[in-house]
Amino acid sequence: MPILYNGSTQEFHLQTKKTSYIFSVMENGQLGQLYYGKKLRHRESFERLFHVEATPNTACTTEGDLVFSLDLVKQEYPAYGTTDFREPAYQVLQEGGSRITDFVYQDHRIFGGKEKLEGLPATYAENDGEATTLEITLYDKEIDVEVRLSYTVFEELDAIARSARFINYGEADINLTRALSVSIDLPDSNFEMVQLSGAWARERHIKNRRLVPGLQSIASTRGTSSAQQNPFLALKRPETTEHQGEVYGASLVYSGNFLAQIEVDHYDTARLMMGINPFDFNWLLKNGESFQTPEAVLVYSDAGLNGMSQTYHRLYRTRLARGKWRDRERPVLINNWEATYFDFDEQKIFELAQSSKELGVELFVLDDGWFGKRDADTSSLGDWFEDKRKLPNGITQLAKAITGLGMEFGLWFEPEMVSKASDLYNAHPDWVIHVPNRRMSHGRNQLVLDFSRQEVVDFIYGLMAKVLRDAPISYVKWDMNRYMTEVGSLGLPADRQREVAHRYILGVYSLYERLTSEFPHVLFESCAGGGSRFDPGLLHYAPQGWTSDDTDAVERLKIQYGTSLVYPVSSMGAHVSAVPNHQVGRVTSLETRANVAYFGAFGYELDVTMMTDTEKEQVKEQIRFYKENRSLIQQGQFYRIESPFAEDGNRTSWLVVSDDQSEALLGYYQVLSTPNPGLSRVFFKGLNPEFEYAIEGLDATFYGDELIGAGLQLNRYRLSEHPADFSSVVYKVKRV
Predict the structure, then answer these.
(1) What is the chain's mean pLDDT, rounded?
(2) What is the β-pairing status of strands 637-642 and 270-276?
(3) Does pLDDT of 70 surpass 70?
(4) What single string gives the DSSP state of each residue in 348-372?
């Protein structure tokens, strides 16, 4: 059993394949954390793991007892104001103004499988044997409110999912001013905090910092998970590397405002917390109402950061992403955006599709500009019907013409936004997020539709569903190019205005749910001005996301390397684009652009009709190679080897290995050419030491232990015949 209960001591022992998570009911009825880390054998009692001593200058919970203080013990879901002076996991404002609560253990149940979270994306089990769930009910009799803590153990996948649900049975209203998803108290603070930070065009760069006393956090208040921070953090030991050492990971399955923080106290213990950002948040609970927090996924690894990442990859690829496209090979696509921007007509689009088909492309995607009167980014968002000036025969006939070539057809939408110059805004100016009598800021000349209102979501659903019903569309790129400002809704009363941001995200999820249910054959790709909402929440509905608007091969090394800390290769949209690159102006070879983009959901974003015959032959070969290897790329084990975030950062390498270890693909990249270089090697990971392997293009074979231990000497097997900046090579490795 992955969840064991010691009744006499009221201890819970959660076990995955390699980890243990142990907590108990403390003497005050609240839950205390005992251990989280490498797997321990089960005992009839873990009381020896719980110890507290009298300490001067603190407060204790019970009169006459000078020992037991919440200031000194590790806890599971800590509260505010009752001898614990650290930040709490939750806070309940009551009618009389009190924020003091006493949620104590009432009962628990253990069951096979995993229940859905109401209105929220989450990991799932396909049968009751895949996961085991513990639900603990805590109760505060004074206010007649329950908190149900949920722990789902994915034993074989080696992860634990946590969330909380608040239910108000009392007659009085309560306000949740803070309701985080997870809290973990660790016994020390000898860690480095690893986060994914950045901005538009440089998303998810890896940043490390040593923990220090006090609070250190990452967060978003932008209405999305954001490009600036990602809803993930890890705590690793200072000596931990990619492939060895301890690391704890926490990832939030949520797409809105979030907080992830570490608090180091005066005894150098660390408290990790994660959930909806309490900033500008409040949730009113009336009698009989409940509030469900998003899910946080915890992973412990003693095999370094890469070990943690592989656990997230397996879980998120197979038990977070879902639907027809979860396990299917993704099509090679071409997107017309950088080829045409808004300047196209039916003939131009068909010519692009026709030329692409000849090269082996399988899916043509028509991006922004097909609807309303959209000649620039200043109009027509919300008017989801074709612009007959550009497409006189409509989307349906264009889609049929392109599918008649033997290709699939995809379409771009930005359903959450509206332009002032649009029929929708003229009809419903009250349907945007705004505050009356205050200036409405804009971003990219657009406003945010109020998805906290059901009628708005219903209207957009009707427009999108009509297009998807009428035309043979098998792919949707769902974009979102604007953060929230002046957050307010005309559809909510004054005492619910701080619910808008979360209700908005629930509206986004509900629209995704309806569309993916009605059109299960459609592959949805999420996008948000590139990677501004690349998070586990959207991965539940869209099994791939546009990783970044920055398609420069050199910049993509950092973006894709950092993204892989949590997200599987199959989730990363990665395209070959034109040079000079439209984002940074750099010129890289067609070979290197493809060598980087192979490690993702592969495609192109350029005008193939302008290519030379030599370039077209090169593209044909790239597409052939990708099709031959995409099952390996999308479903194999991914290993990071050399980091672009290293002090030098001139070399990057990574590797994907099949589950049976019979084949592998290694990508090696050098940013700048080095004069008279010394001997250098790349060391493989994940191969079977006993297998003999051949490497395509090389006239020798190698045993797995040689490639792992001795490595491949790059000076002997050069990247190219002539040294050059931005050079690369991809080695295909197969068992002999």
Answers:
(1) 96
(2) unpaired
(3) yes
(4) HHHHHHHHHHHHT--EEEE-SSSBT
158: which DSSP letter?
T
CB atoms under 10 Å from CB of 448, counted, come to 24
* Residues 614, 612: Cα–Cα separation, whole Å: 5
Q: Which residues pair with 139 in a beta bridge?
A: 104, 146
**What order of strands is seen across the sheet that includes strand 3-6?**
3-6, 11-15, 19-25, 31-38
The dihedrals phi and psi of 14, each to the nearest 5 degrees, come to -95, 125
The CA-atom distances, in angstroms, between 447 and each of 450, 479, 487 are 9, 14, 11
Amino acid letter for position 370? W
Select from 247, 10, 119, 200 the least CA-distant residue to 511.
119
Q: Which residues pair with 176 in a beta bridge?
A: 92, 283
Contacts of 309 (CB under 8 A, 6+ apart): 564, 565, 566, 638, 640
| E strands, 213-269, in order | 214-219, 229-236, 247-253, 258-264
Amino acid present at 441: S
For the entire predicted model, the pTM comes to 0.97
Residue-level length of the chain: 736
Cα distances (Å, whole numbers) of residue 106 to 8, 33, 83, 102, 136: 15, 17, 22, 12, 8
**What tokens were used for 151?**
């722990």
If phi over 0 gives left and psi between -120 and 50 gives alpha, with beta otherwise, what is residue 22? beta
> What are the C-alpha distances in Å from 152 to residues 30, 298, 384, 576, 687?
20, 10, 41, 40, 32
Is residue 352 a contact partner of residue 609, using CB atoms and an 8 Å limit? Answer: yes
Q: In degrees rounded to 5, what are phi and psi of residue 5?
A: -130, 125
Nearest one of 163, 116, 170, 176 to 135, comparing CA atoms: 163
Question: Which residue has 């940013």 as its token pair?
Answer: 671
* C-alpha span between 451 and 508 (Å, rounded): 7
Residue 720 has pLDDT above 60, yes or no: no
Angle at CA 159, nearest 5°, toward 52 and 49? Answer: 15
Q: How far is CA 660 from CA 37, 688, 734, in A?
A: 28, 9, 11
What is the 8-class DSSP label of residue 242?
S
Q: How far apart are CA 406 and CA 602, in angstroms?
A: 19
Q: Fill in the DSSP letter of residue 329.
A: P
Collapsed DSSP state (helix, strand, coil) of residue 215: strand
pLDDT value of residue 679: 76
Burial of residue 537 (number of CB atoms within 10 Å: 0-12, 13-18, 19+): buried
3-state SS class at 101: coil
Instruction: Name the nearest CA neighbour of 201 among 589, 482, 644, 584.
Output: 584
| Coil/strand/helix, residue 497 | helix
- The angle formed by the CA atoms of residues 542, 543 and 545, to the nearest 5 degrees, is 75
Q: pLDDT tens-digit profile of 611-625?
A: 999 999 999 999 999
Residue with tokens 């959209």: 374
Q: Do strands 523-526 and 475-478 pair parallel, antiparallel, or not at all (unpaired)?
A: parallel
Q: What backbone torsions phi and psi does residue 505 show, to the nearest 5 degrees?
A: -65, -40
User: 273 and 180 in contact (C-beta within 8 Å)?
Assistant: yes
Helix (H, G, I), strand (E, B) or coil at 409: strand
What is the rounded CA–CA span in Å between residue 182 and residue 736?
48
CB 12 within 8 A of CB 142: no
Q: The tokens of 273 are what? A: 């917390």
For residues 341 and 370, the answer to whether their CB atoms sit within 8 Å is: no
Q: CA–CA separation, 187 vs 33, rounded Å?
A: 10
What are the backbone dihedrals phi and psi of residue 502, each rounded to the nearest 5 degrees, phi first?
-70, -40
The residue to which tokens 């149900």 are assigned = 148
Give me the active site residues, please: 479, 549
Q: What is the distance between the alpha carbons of residues 386 and 368, in angstroms, rounded to a whole number?
A: 11
pLDDT higher than threshold 60 for residue 719:
no
> How many alpha carbons lie under 13 Å from residue 583 in its C-beta half-sphere?
17
User: Tens of pLDDT along 229-266?
Assistant: 999 999 999 999 999 999 999 999 999 999 999 999 99
